[in-house]
Specification:
two-stranded antiparallel sheet, 5% strand, Rrf2 family transcriptional regulator, Tscrpt_reg_Rrf2, DNA-binding
Length: 152
Amino acid sequence: MRISARADYAVRAALRLAASQDEGPLKAEAIAESQGIPHKFLEGILNDMRRGGLVLSQRGGNGGYWLARPADAISVADVIRVVDGPLVSVRGVRPPELSYTGPARSLLPLWIAVRANVRQILEGVTLADVASAELPPQVSALAENPEAWTNP
C-alpha cells in the first residue's frame, strides 16, 4: 500500500481540526502553516473533505473549517477514502473485481487479505485516537515491533 501525499496531508489537516474542535473554525492558511502543507494543495483537499461530508466551512472574517462530526466518529480510513478513493486497489481496480488463472489464482485471496488488514487498522483508528496519541492496543503492538521500523 502506498499512502499518497494527498492522503497524508488530508489526515494531518483533519488531525489539526480535531485538536482544535473547541476553538472554532480554522482558516486554511493556519492549517497549512501549522502542518507544512502547501496552501493551494490544501484548499483542494479541504474542498474534497467538505464534499465528502467530513468538514464544514464558512466564508468570511470569522470563517474557516471545522470537522462535521466529532473526532471520535471519523476514522483515518474515512479521510483517506474521501481524498484518494479505495484504500487498496491493484492497478486501480478493487480486488473483488479481479480474476486470475493458473499459478496466479491464489493472488486474489492474498489481495483480499491485504485489503482486510488495511481496513482493520485504518477503520479502527479515529482522529481522536491519533490526536490524543492513544492508538488502539493492536495498532500500538504492531508499531512496537522493531522489525516494523526496518526496510528489508
